[in-house]
């Protein structure tokens, strides 16, 4: 599972693969503090088993155990949607789910949307210069991708159904971006 | 006057150095000054020409910016200015934050003056550095020009710069910048401003300034690779969660016992905001719990059982008391502070009293929390006696360095600008909004990093959303009264403006008496109001106050633009034409143009509206940029308003990146709209009632108005800022439209506190 470290000599990010040791699925941990268990997660098509507290939300497993910091923390109480990931293709709030509740389900994070920013929503976001600060955009892009990947051009009403908060207020560009993504997908 | 060679320098040595610098660090040249400067060239051959720019042998141009990107687009706009004068293709430009360390070999340390300062705030990154950046880019181009001339053995006048290369005038040869950079790095840049100004790219030949070039960091913001403060990771790092005393005047009675799952508990002492802060240095008002991951740290912190000492005075820190005290001060408080003469006319009250009709209107605005979407955090590693490294989402590299060098932190590492001991790297911010140049969260992170259980390891100290909301530096609550008098024609002939608010300045320095922010946008109004008097009475209310996006303008434009609108309507005047009539003089010309543009865009007075819709207008100036918003609203449910359209005009003097400018006006407007509709922080027993987004509603997609922005320029004036000026005029524009539609004038913000719970729509 890729983990992202900051290369101190070059002041740039370096993506390296962490060396997770093999763990037995379901085995009780010997660490001893609170209850932990080994959970096998399918994240972006890759299966990884992690040893986590049974209460730990998926958000924090992604950010701190798997080093995937693309998924963001905004409120922790499931109102802002910044932590959105796709679970079996549908947007869910990862602060609202324990990792232990989603073993075996297909989890997609922003890192897994494409290997190279080639998803139509990502291309549209760059073309329309959608992000400002960017904190909401991981979750926002996944929520929009879920709409765009459904097949037909999303209606205004369905775009209005996106409840992800953007504090910078980029909503109008998001709306335009969704339609641009549809056009890119069509090859126009 | 152009590039001069250093004494003792000859061409043969230059060529040897240039090619050596292109490929290796070691040189066998005996000129000592050359040997010392040669390490300006890095392995791989790229070279720092000055503190701003590195050019690689294959022409990649990396430009460093001294202030911090937080969504306002300066990682694009600042390099655009520099790259225009350097004369390079935008596609070859890369941009990065400048850490507090200089590029190797150029200087022993950076003080920040080389960059025009290191503070991101006041919408100042572009406007304070426009000329500096142009000259720096031209100076870099001049070095390359000189390097080429030396290599060819010709006079500089026999060759010239084109985009990305230096060309012999007869066209017979050229060098790419990448071929010259190593040699150019060994020359000394010109500091002759007259010379540099003479070689700037003429405005008519610009390719970058004034054009909407794509922002360099945007691709990283669409694939999860962008590293914000909270995302910073190094192997083996720890995480800490902060818990503050529930009362802002309380202290920690004893460090709590180590909770389950935690590695350490660290008591945290207050780091003052200023020399005589009302919050004293050294008061222990919080603690941090250290663990191996963020969530475990937060959970352990919640399970800790701290004992707090809460003084009796805490009970009086509640909203009802704060408002009651403000009303008393409005009635009888003594004003203070320096008011400019034109706004301190003793004749004003008499003009009001003696006028045909008088108006007295009072407005109340609440404390507001920043709530940057990325909560406060800072990563620190202390190597005892040797090094303090800070990685932070910060608006102030200098503040971080000062914390590390402070006596209070006791690291003993020397001066803040000694980058061999104190290294600060500013990361991307998920919103800064005026919160992230404060030092409090930085000082806490250093204290955690010093703890014996942690020292030597990197630790990321994090505030949960609740801690972030509850321990902010809030926009000051404000009570503002306007007393105005009109003549028989309804023209304002006297104006007295009296505000009561806590003082950012005085809280941080109790010896100060003046607060410029408190009266921003109350003074220097270009409206013809007759004699004017502005008064400010300081409220000693205890909650911490600070710089919330648009600062004093945020409160005061609401007060002024609501009052003018009320007077206009009462006098039977059209609110747009009424404002217009007060700006028809030389000093009002720029405001008038902005007002007219927005009103024309909205079709004010020319477009028929259904009975269910009304327009509202408001204009204000902040940080040298004038913004007018016109809104179209309807009301379809109680305690709410639908904002269908916003038409905005903004004059910022010079537009560097039109797309970015429009995005900033629109985004700042949204921030002000959410605040105007629902934003508030209420106080109870010394703490805030609102702790998270559930009680601090933000505008969502379905509620977002259509927005149209027109940017205006005024050649020859000082540039205005873009990050903040869009915020102040939106709340009054909406309140004005609401009054026009319903007959109900809302004078207390937020407009709809009962609707401030955030729900999925």
Question: Explain this structure to me?
Answer:
The complex is a heterodimer of chains A (188) and B (761). With 188 residues, chain A is of the alpha+beta class. In chain A, 26% of the residues lie in helices and 21% in strands. Chain A has 5 helices and 7 strands, in the order E-E-E-E-H-E-E-E-H-H-H-H. In chain A, strands 4-3-7-5-6 form a 5-stranded mixed β-sheet, sandwiched between helices. A two-stranded antiparallel sheet of chain A has the order 1-2. In chain A, a hairpin with a 2-residue loop joins strand 5 and strand 6 (90-93). In chain A, helix 3 crosses helix 5. The longest helix of chain A has 16 residues, at 171-186. With 761 residues, chain B is α+β, with helices and mostly antiparallel strands. In chain B, the strands form 7 sheets. Chain B has a 7-stranded mixed β-sheet with strand order 10-11-8-17-14-15-16. In chain B, a hairpin with a 2-residue loop joins strand 24 (683-684) and strand 25 (687-688). In chain B, helix 4 (130-152) crosses helix 5. Chain B is globular and about 80 Å long. Mean pLDDT of chain B is 93; it is low at 1-44. At the A-B interface, strand 1, helix 1, helix 2, helix 3 and helix 5 of A face helix 7 and helix 17 of B.
């Amino acid at each position: 599972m890729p983990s992202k470290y900051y290369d101190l000599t070059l002041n740039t990010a370096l993506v390296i693969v962490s060396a997770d040791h093999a763990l037995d699925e379901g085995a009780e941990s010997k660490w001893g503090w609170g209850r932990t268990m080994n959970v096998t997660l399918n994240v972006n098509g890759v299966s990884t088993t992690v040893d986590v507290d049974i209460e730990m939300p998926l958000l924090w497993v992604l950010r701190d155990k798997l080093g995937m910091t693309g998924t963001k923390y905004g409120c922790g109480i499931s109102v802002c949607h910044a932590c959105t990931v796709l679970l079996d293709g549908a947007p869910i709030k990862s602060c609202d789910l324990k990792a232990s509740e989603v073993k075996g389900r297909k989890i997609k994070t922003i890192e897994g949307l494409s290997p190279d920013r080639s998803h139509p929503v990502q291309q549209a976001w760059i073309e329309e210069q959608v992000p400002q600060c960017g904190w909401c955009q991981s979750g926002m892009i996944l929520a929009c991708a879920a709409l765009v990947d459904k097949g037909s051009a999303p209606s205004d009403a369905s775009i209005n159904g996106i409840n992800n908060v953007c504090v910078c207020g980029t909503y109008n560009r998001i709306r335009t971006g969704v339609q641009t993504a549809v056009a890119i997908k069509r090859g126009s | 006057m152009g590039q001069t060679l250093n004494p003792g320098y000859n061409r043969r040595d230059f060529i040897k150095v240039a090619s050596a610098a292109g490929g290796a660090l070691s040189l066998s040249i005996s000129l000592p000054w050359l040997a010392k400067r040669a390490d300006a060239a890095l392995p791989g051959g790229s070279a720092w020409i000055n503190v701003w720019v590195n050019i690689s042998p294959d022409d990649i141009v990396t430009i460093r910016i001294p202030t911090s990107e937080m969504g306002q687009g300066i990682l694009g706009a600042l390099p655009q200015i520099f790259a225009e004068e350097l004369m390079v293709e935008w596609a070859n430009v890369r941009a990065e934050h400048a850490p507090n360390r200089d590029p190797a070999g150029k200087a022993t340390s950076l003080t920040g003056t080389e960059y025009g300062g290191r503070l991101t705030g006041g919408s100042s990154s572009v406007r304070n550095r426009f000329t500096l950046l142009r000259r720096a880019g031209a100076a870099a181009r001049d070095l390359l020009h000189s390097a080429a001339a030396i290599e060819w053995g010709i006079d500089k006048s026999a060759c010239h710069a084109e985009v990305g290369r230096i060309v012999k005038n007869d066209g017979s040869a050229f060098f790419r910048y990448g071929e010259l950079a190593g040699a150019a790095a060994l020359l000394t840049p010109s500091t002759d401003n007259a010379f540099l100004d003479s070689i700037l790219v003429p405005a008519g030949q610009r390719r970058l300034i004034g054009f909407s070039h794509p922002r360099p960091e945007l691709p990283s913001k669409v694939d999860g690779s962008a590293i914000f403060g909270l995302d910073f990771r190094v192997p083996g790092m720890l995480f800490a969660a902060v818990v503050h005393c529930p009362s802002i005047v309380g202290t920690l009675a004893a460090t709590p016992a180590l909770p389950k799952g935690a590695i350490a508990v660290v008591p945290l002492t207050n780091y003052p905001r200023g020399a005589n802060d009302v919050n004293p240095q050294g008061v222990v008002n919080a603690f941090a719990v250290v663990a191996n991951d963020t969530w475990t740290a937060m959970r352990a912190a919640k399970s800790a059982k701290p004992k707090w000492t809460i003084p009796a005075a805490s009970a009086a820190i509640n909203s009802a008391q704060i408002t009651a005290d403000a009303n008393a001060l409005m009635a009888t408080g003594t004003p203070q502070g320096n008011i400019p003469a034109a706004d301190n006319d003793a004749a004003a009250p008499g003009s009001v009293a003696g006028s045909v009709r008088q108006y007295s209107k009072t407005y109340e605005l609440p404390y507001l929390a920043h709530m940057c979407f990325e909560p406060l955090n800072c990563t620190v590693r202390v190597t005892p006696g040797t090094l303090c490294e800070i990685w932070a989402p910060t608006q102030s590299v200098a503040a971080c360095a000062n914390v590390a060098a402070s006596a209070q932190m006791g690291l003993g590492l020397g001066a803040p600008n000694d980058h061999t001991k104190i290294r600060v790297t500013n990361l991307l911010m998920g919103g800064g909004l005026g919160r992230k140049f404060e030092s409090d969260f930085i000082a806490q992170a250093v204290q955690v990093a010093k703890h014996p259980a942690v020292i030597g390891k990197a630790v990321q100290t994090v505030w949960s959303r609740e801690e972030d909301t509850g321990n902010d530096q809030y926009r000051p609550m404000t009570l503002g009264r306007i007393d105005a008098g009109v003549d028989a024609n309804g023209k304002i002939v006297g104006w007295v403006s009296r505000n009561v608010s806590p003082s950012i300045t005085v809280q941080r320095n109790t010896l100060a008496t003046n607060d410029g922010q408190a009266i921003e946008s109350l003074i220097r109004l270009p409206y013809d109001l007759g004699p004017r008097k502005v008064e400010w009475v300081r409220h000693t209310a205890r909650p911490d106050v600070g710089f919330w996006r648009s600062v004093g303008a945020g409160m005061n434009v609401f007060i002024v633009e609501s009052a003018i609108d009320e007077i206009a309507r009462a006098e039977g005047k059209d609110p747009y034409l009424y404002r217009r009539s007060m700006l028809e003089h030389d000093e009002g010309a720029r405001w008038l143009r902005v007002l007219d543009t927005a009103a024309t865009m909205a079709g004010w007075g020319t477009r028929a509206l259904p009975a269910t819709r009304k327009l509202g207008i408001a204009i204000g100036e902040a940080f040298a940029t004038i913004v007018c918003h016109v809104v179209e609203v309807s009301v379809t449910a109680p305690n709410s308003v639908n904002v269908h359209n916003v038409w905005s005009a903004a004059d910022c003097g010079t537009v560097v990146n039109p797309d970015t400018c429009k995005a900033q006006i629109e985004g700042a407007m949204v921030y002000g709209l959410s605040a105007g509709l629902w934003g508030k922080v209420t106080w109870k027993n010394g703490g805030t009632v609102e702790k998270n987004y559930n009680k601090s509603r933000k505008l969502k997609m379905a509620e977002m108005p259509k927005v149209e922005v027109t940017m205006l320029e005024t050649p020859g004036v000082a540039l205005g800022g873009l990050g903040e000026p869009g915020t102040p005029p939106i709340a009054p524009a909406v309140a004005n439209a609401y009054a026009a539609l319903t007959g109900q004038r809302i004078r207390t913000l937020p407009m709809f506190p009962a609707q401030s719970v955030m729900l999925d729509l």
